[in-house]
Amino acid sequence: MNILLLGSGGREHALAWKMADSPLVDRLYCAPGNPGIANDAELVNLDLADSAAVAGFCRTHGIDLVVVGPEAPLVAGLVDALEGAGVACFGPSQAAARLEGSKGFAKDLCRAHAIPTAAYERFTAAVPAKAYLRRQGAPIVVKADGLAAGKGVVVATTLAEAEAAVDLMFSGGLGAAGAEVVIEEFLAGEEVSLLALCDGETAIALPTAADHKRVLDGERGPNTGGMGAFSPVPLMTPAHEQRAMETIVGPTLRALKAMGTPYKGVLYAGLMITADGPKLIEYNVRFGDPECQVLMLRLMSDLVPALVAARDGVLKNFDLRFYPQAALCVVMAAKGYPGDALKGSVIGGLKEAAAIDGVEIFHAGTKREGDRILANGGRVLNVCAVAPSIEVARERAYAAVDKIRWPEGFCRRDIGARAIKQTARF
Ligand code: AMP
Q: Quick check: helix, strand or coil at residue 412?
């Protein structure tokens, strides 16, 4: 079969790497892709916002399945447009993608179906929002309702910080995403990402993963798209996982089906493991980046039939196998990230780094110029490793990082430390 993968990050490189291995695939295309993905797929220059152009490419190239990586085209309705044009897609419809596209929608769904999550209220104006903040007190979390490229959440430790976030959002600081605001209770605990393949009715949980969101070691500094990830997550016991599937993922699928907008695709539940058990922090309607990288490294089964089964609504009785090994991913970013990152610096040593046992390097913001690889974004490389334990995976990944010659880049040096601490505790 012929597949078109959409996106250009480390997540899409991991998906392309895994799908390229499938004996079912004749041609694998990726739009727009990146130089790493070019090793696994033919790159195509398509504007993901132009659904007619994507559908046209699918017709002329006999595409049997489109796999949508990032959230923006899902929330914009690309799957509806392509399916309407007769092209099979892996990913949720626009209506189902509201789980990520509108935090207020997701929270109301939780409230209506008693799904455990932080207490919250929705606001469309600053005055009542601030009155609510004053009643609740800090710490408290202020969230823009819409998609804000990871910048829409402020975990405020003081009331002043929370009020400033409300002012920023209502003054248009985040564009249309901040026209409505959700204010919610601060949840204390450890964060875990639980991803499940869904076919509208059935959900198959993938192994647990966790990412490191803050830019600096020791979980300090501003939030980022993710500076690293690991899988499995030691503190997420099978009992926690079963409870999260029964109290969060299951009721969400049933609710969306009852609304006439069944959820198909991968559902990412960002969880806080609190003293009262797992609670939902947020939904994403696609694979997490960098969680996807560690999950693809652990996936033993062919990914392609799983994606087709999810799209076709036949996941019941489907089986996915995973390697028991641990996987870890260190993100290398260009200096300046998550602010303005320097572009155009030259990256060396990639071959030597990738030659280390168990190491796989996925590209994100890179660009090829002749035979040189240049930095071309904030998060640039995903240096990943598989090993019998998180400790060894971590050693391998950092040995690879140390082979990469890129003075203009940086990474956290403590990826996986949380997992190692958890192993000691559990
Ligand atoms: P999100 O973009 O919704 O994933 O939020 C970004 C990060 O903010 C999350 O990964 C958490 O670390 C943090 N966060 C979001 N909501 C809460 C909450 N209610 N309590 C504590 N931390 C939160």
A: coil
Whether the per-residue pLDDT at 281 is higher than 80: the answer is yes
Contact 358, 385 (CB under 8 A): yes
- Tens digits of per-residue pLDDT, 181-213? 999 999 999 999 999 999 999 999 999 999 999
Q: Is the CB of 118 within 6 Å of ligand 1?
A: yes
pTM of the model: 0.96
CA 307 to ligand 1 centroid distance, Å:
28
What is the atom index within ligand 1 of the atom nearest the CA of 284? Answer: 4
Cα–ligand 1 centroid distance for 350 (angstroms): 34
370: left (phi over 0), alpha (psi -120 to 50) or beta: left
Nearest CA to ligand 1 atom 16: 281
* pLDDT for the residue 173: 83
Ligand 1 centroid, distance to 153 Cα (angstroms): 7
231 by Cβ neighbours in 10 Å (0-12 / 13-18 / 19+) ranks as buried
**Mean pLDDT throughout 163-170?**
94
